Amino acid sequence: MSALVLMVLGLGAFTAGYLLYSRFISEHIFRLDSEFRTPAHVQEDGVDFVPTNRWVLWGHHFTSVAGAAPIVGPAIAVIWGWLPAFLWVTLGTVFFAGIHDAGALWASVRNEGKSIGALTESVVGQRARSLFMIIIFLLLLMVNAVFAIIIARLFVQHPTSVIPAWFVIAVAVTIGYLLYRRGVALLWPSIIGVTLLYASMFVGNEVPLSLPESVFGLGPAGIWVVILFTYAAVASLLPVWLLLQPRDYINGLQLFIGLGIFFLAVLIARPDVVAPMINSSVPEDVPSLIPLLFVTIACGACSGFHGLVSSGTTSKQVDNEKDVRFVGFLGTVGEGSLALAAIIACTAGFATLGDWEGYYTSFGAGGLDAFVQGGGVILASIPGISESFGQTLLAVMAILFAATTMDTGVRLQRYIVQEAGTIYDIPALTGKGLSTILAVGCCLALAFGSGGGGEGGLIIWPLFGTTNQLLAALTLLVLSVFILKQGRPTVYTLAPFSFLLFMTVWALLTQLRGFYENEQYFLLGLDAVILVTAIWVGLESLSALRKAASESSESSA
Amino acid sequence: MPKTMPNSGVKGRFSVILIREWERQMSASGCCGRLEGDFLQRRGERCFPERRAVMEAMGPLYRDLRSRYGDEVEIHVVDPRNLFTIFALILRDARTHSLSAWKALRTLFRIPVTGVVVNGQLLARGRWPEFSELKEVLGDPKATREEVVSGLA
Q1: Does A516 reside within a domain?
Q2: Predicted structure pTM score
Q3: ipTM here
Q4: Which of A31, A64, A224, A375 has its CA 20 to 30 A from that of B117?
Q5: Contacts of A389 (CB under 8 A, 6+ apart)
């Protein structure tokens, strides 16, 4: 089958979902009201609360939710064949993520622009709020380890990406200095920065850099993990304007350029999908499709992170409540498109089925490597782009997203350690030095605790997806309780909530057994903690829904 | 910098674009780079204190504009990382207010991280102008303050 058909079907499903389902939800469940005075108007202060044009707001929202994760998940999940991943991305985007993201936005708009964390407390209760914070902590713990391993593997598989990925730091620091300290206009440094980045890709393409096979008993990926965490530790100590903020500009431009070039290339190349529709001969270590598919692809189908964005800043800028549909649902569609691109790259970018199988030799083995490999082949259909340059471009794009997240992740973990130091009166922990070492130490323990000298860390990915889905489930619970209290049908939020929670618990139990059998006790412990949290979410939901139902029936009586 | 805009006869509404960054990480960093909110809220700290300071410094100017001009002026607050939207707004304003292509391009290439664009032309860069400076360009509000306030409510 032509990948073009897959692209048209996917984009068609998103369009139909937006035109039909989102309209139904907006009119009958959320009952969006153009007369409702949004927090942007009621609390208008020109600082946090600002009524914003829906196109402007969509631009803010989409660039905030997109990232590396909607590429990684689908790239791993196509090992089960392209159909399951395609169905989960399209249906998940419409029936799960759409209502989740727009719902979080709507609930926040209806509750004075409160964040989903604060809403959890006010709508469900104090215990649920604690639960929310635990889930966030677990996500932070894993995100760094996962992304370090992803970058390390890309460096090993695509050594042409090493020079541009590190060179971009110099570019970002220069842009940061020019923008924030010299007050230079935005466009010139951006154009020059992106041009230099692309020039460095040409250099990288000619001069691939590989690490020695073994240093202190560590393989190349393991060494890269150590180097990356050293980098993240240093970067997290720098002022944000110097590196993190300018990286934001480069990433934003890369997102639009990369996505635009990729879909253009698919239109030109019209490659055939060589991966099987359903892979009946998966490698031995690949877990069962159900439930693992639903936690392997989180971002790109349904992601709890989006609730944080929707309720964090977006809700404070909604001008007209009816814009919730446009901004919330279409932001999700943007992310779904990124996941769709990843599926196409990983299934149609190979010459033969044998080539594809050569990449997907074990669970997590294909992943971003396959995305870069396959995507590079598709990009080569654009005149002037060679296959290896296309691969370098995609590898660098994914690395930039992931590295920026690592910088923030380590920074936040350091804050948490510092907070613990303050609470428990341990002065040594309140400073930046020891707290950073501890934060990075936790991440390294997780990265290497997964085995393989830091190289087998993609085993963590489903656990990361599981926790992300738990966050989404919690947001859907908040939404369900809120809707129930208003006496409206809850099936459209409770059904995805129940599905996600059920699949999450099932996936955790499946992985628990796997970790035990493989004697991966560190991951076993982590899995157990997440499992307890998931059960807690389940119990909390029963209690909250029962209470809300009785309140609703009392008020109607 | 023109003291008064060339289009004071105005075909369309006055348009003011206030450019400044939101205090959070944004562009494609992406779904996983936004965890700071709730954690830091508890500590009362900010991940991006410099950005926050810029946001808070813009507040009085925004409120002055809204309270004095109400709907006479269309105000957009845009994050500079949302570059494509800024482009679209400036090009639209340039067309509405009959600016030459050269002037529109000039504005595009001078977009700052922090600044003010009025009717497609850059008024201030790297600073928030005094309200009087804006008033000089926009002219006196047509409605009385009481009318504006009641209109906003």
Answers
A1: yes
A2: 0.87
A3: 0.83
A4: A64
A5: A201, A202, A205, A376, A379
